[in-house]
Amino acid sequence: MTTPDARSTAWDRARAVADAVLYEGYLLYPYRATSSKNQSRWQFGVLGPSGAEVSGLGENAAMCAQLLVDPHGAPTLSGVVRFLQLQHRGVEREDGRGGYEPVDELRSGQHGWVSWDEAVEREIAIGPLDVASLPRALDISVPGGIDVEGVEGGRLVRRRRGVYGTLAISAEPDDGLLRLAVEVRNAAPPASDRDEAIAVSLIGTHLLLEIGGGEFVSLLEPPSPAAAAAQRCRQHRCFPVLAGPPGDRRLVLVSPIILYDHPEIAEQSQGDLYDACEIDEILTLRVMTMTDEEKAQARATDPLAARIIDRCDSMSPEAMLDLHGVLRNPHAAPGSQLIPEIPDDVDWWDPQADTAVRPDVDAVLVNGTRVARGSRVRLHPCRRADAQDLFYADRIAQVASVHEDVDGAQHIAVILEDDPAADMHDWYGRYLYFAPDEVEPLEERSAKWK
Asked: What is the superkingdom listed in this entry's lineage (predicted)?
């Protein structure tokens, strides 16, 4: 039985990842409104109004996912659908006659504000719903509004258009499992221009779902009995992954960004930077190189940008060190060993280590089989580090070389056997790289490299 504390911990973990999905690409370095990278925003999970995609004014109106549930009795479904609602912040200056006039920027002492499109987090609760009672359609609309904030020398006027959406949930049996289907759809009428389309869009849309009386089935690595049912699941603009800690299959994150099962935020990360594929250390160092004027412009853009600048400015040397050089190898295959092995008392920068390694003849042990240049292997990508890895699953490849990096992790360079450009790739050294636990040795060797 799951304890309340365990459930809370699992939700906190999943929500942290969901927050990263919600704000992915919200604001890009150098975090200023004048930056060209911040002129075109809202990259992920955008559901536009009806007809926006066809008319070229916005994004498709829906995202859909199908999930598998292994029922244990009478399952129930609960969770949240989350998205951002655009909020335009207009800057108005006192006109000296008791009124206000719109301006692009307002400055008062060390403080500044610019006109900017912010966003408001929205979260609509789902259920709990008896799966047996499905299908259901839920209204997830959010009203518009206007807020006025007085500042020195003027005011900030925040305007939100109402957003209209529906969530449809259904269920049907499939090979002893239940296949749940969820669809989030923007129900707003057609927009007349791009500005109106994004103003009424659901942004960063995703779902966090919890199953009671059952467990979700991984669609990335389904157990053998569920493999056929998993293949029948269809996704549109999103993909569901197990969101709890490893071993917990009660939570799923339906994400518009490709993730792996049981994703988590690196413990070394001190806070969000919102940059796509962010690398905290690099971005923090870049912020530290910004001039005072550039930092002031970033602070004037968005309160979240101001927090980034303040956090980077106050970061301790110890916190910065935590962002650098974390050694981890959770997928290392037992018994894998690079041949020849560099002596323990030789550092990686020592010339002796450099001459000891020869990728063209070195080998690695995979399930007791020696894999080296010329070996034939079947690929089984499992890290999901690159979306294209999915296309290489079960493909046959020839090993070109074996490497070991300075952290001790092994990497196998391969060329796809059925690639018509294989000889050219080998000629100029363009290889695909996989870890030892992502390849299955085949008995015969390639005649080319025997």
From this structure: Bacteria
- CB under 8 Å to 52, separation ≥6 — which residues? 58, 59, 60, 61, 190, 191, 197, 201
* CA distances in angstroms from 178 to 172, 242, 368, 420, listed in the order given: 6, 16, 40, 42
Token pair of 148 as six digits: 């006025």
Q: CB burial class (10 A; 0-12, 13-18, 19+) of residue 53?
A: middle
Instruction: Specify the residue for token string 């005072």.
Output: 292
Give tens-digit pLDDT for 271-296: 899 987 788 889 999 999 999 999 99
- Relative orientation angle of helices 303-313 and 280-289, to the nearest 10 degrees: 90
313: left (phi over 0), alpha (psi -120 to 50) or beta: alpha
Residue 4 pLDDT: 62
For strand 375-379 and strand 369-372, is the pairing parallel, antiparallel, or unpaired? Answer: unpaired
- 149-182 CB burial, b ≥16 within 10 A, e <16: eeeeebbbbbebbebbbebbbebeebeebbbbbb
H-helix or E-strand spanning residue 303: helix 303-313
Token pair 């079947």 is found at 378
In whole angstroms, give the CA distance from residue 342 to residue 313: 41
CA distance 29 to 277: 12
pLDDT, tens digit (0-9, with 9 covering 90-100), for 177-235: 999 999 999 999 999 999 999 999 999 999 999 999 999 999 999 999 999 999 999 99
Alpha-carbon separation of residue 61 from 64, 164, 188, 240 (angstroms) = 10, 11, 9, 19
In this prediction, residue 362 has a pLDDT band, given cuts at 50, 70 and 90, of confident
HSE of 131, CA atoms in CB hemisphere, 13 A:
27
CATH topology of domain 338-449: SH3 type barrels. (2.30.30)
Q: What are phi and psi of 194, to 5 degrees?
A: -65, -40
Domain boundaries, the chain: 40-271, 338-449
**Paired residues of 150 in beta bridges:** 155
Average pLDDT over residues 86-101: 94
The encoded tokens of residue 233 equal: 């699941």
pLDDT at 123: 97
Q: Looking at the whole model, is its pTM more than 0.70?
A: yes
The packing angle between helices 292-301 and 303-313, to 10°, is: 140
Taking the C-alpha atoms of residue 402 and residue 411, their distance in angstroms, rounded to an integer, is: 6
How big is the chain, counted in residues?
A: 450
